[in-house]
Amino acid sequence: MWATLQPGSSPIDWCEENYTFSPIIAEFVNTFSNVLFFVLPPLLMHLFKPYGQIINPGIHLIWTLLIVVGLSSAYFHATLSLVGQLLDEVAILWVFSAAFSMFFPRRFFPNFINNDRKLFTLGGIAFGIIGTFLAIIHPAVNAFALMLLGIPSVILLIHEVRRDKNERIHRLGVRCASVWFVAVFCWINDRLLCEAWSAIKFPYLHGLWHIFIFIASYTACVLFAYFSVREEKPEERAVLRYWPKNDFELGIPYVSIKTAQVDFNDKI
Questions:
Q1: Whole-angstrom Cα distance, residue 143 to residue 56?
Q2: Are 216 and 253 spatial neighbours (Cβ–Cβ below 8 Å)?
């Protein structure tokens, strides 16, 4: 058991050279490129405070899990330990489980679920538990399995964006999907074409993956949170807004809730 805590005990070693910048941090760039996982979720918790009060308080679990992903990823890349790898990958698995449980459209529920969100959530929890055990048993394939989970997520996102008539939603959806594809490009190149990138002195694509996949992930959660209002609370009105300036669409997107012509985000 103690061996799994030892630096270098993970079977995975990314392209960045180890201990180049620091004698105590294995992959320096891959470690500190997780900074967005710490900086943005607290802001999103603030921006989504009315959403959590009116629509679903579970939205804050998503932002909390993203922080856990950032902590776990930083620990893994700093040590390259097997425990760090498992913490990183299991945290990502639970982000998927929580998001699918919370946002998966009811119209796609299997018949035996009887349109019951709580029952579907129990299934999501079971999926997370089973996936956690499998991740511990077969750690070498975890990263590829998690990458595969991203494919149906993006397909569902594109499907939901196309159903909506709001052009602002369409533009954010295109940016989100585009950033996801760039993130996957970085991940695959770092994993499979390390020698080529090392030859041009840029073995840091996995660090870029951290940045792009965070942007794609939280943006997808914002979009699904918007769609969820239409399905779960049709009496409320969701509005896509941007912080710090609403007319600057490269800012931080979030969902504002309007009830009886009152925009609750104007109060925070």
A1: 30
A2: no
Tens of pLDDT along the chain (268 residues)? 566 668 778 888 899 999 999 999 999 999 999 999 999 999 999 999 999 999 999 999 999 999 999 999 999 999 999 999 999 999 999 999 999 999 999 999 999 999 999 999 999 999 999 999 999 888 888 888 999 999 999 999 999 999 999 999 999 999 999 999 999 999 999 999 999 999 999 999 999 999 999 999 999 999 999 999 988 898 899 999 999 999 999 999 999 998 744 555 665 5
Q: What is the DSSP string of 45-81?
A: HHHTHHHHHHT-TTHHHHHHHHHHHHHHHHHHHHH--
* Beta carbons within 8 Å of 143's beta carbon, 6+ residues apart: 12, 89, 191
Sign (positive/negative) of CA torsion 67, 69, 71, 73? Answer: negative
Cα 134 to Cα 8: distance, rounded to the nearest angstrom: 21
17 DSSP 8-state letter: P
Do the beta carbons of residue 168 and residue 240 sit within 8 Å? Answer: yes
Using an 8 Å Cβ cutoff, are 209 and 190 in contact?
yes
Answer for the pair 72, 223: CB distance below 8 angstroms, yes or no: no
pTM listed for this prediction: 0.92
8 Å CB contact between 91 and 62: no
Q: Does residue 203 have a cis peptide bond before it, meaning omega lies within 30 degrees of 0?
A: no
The whole-angstrom separation of Cα 249 and Cα 139 is 39
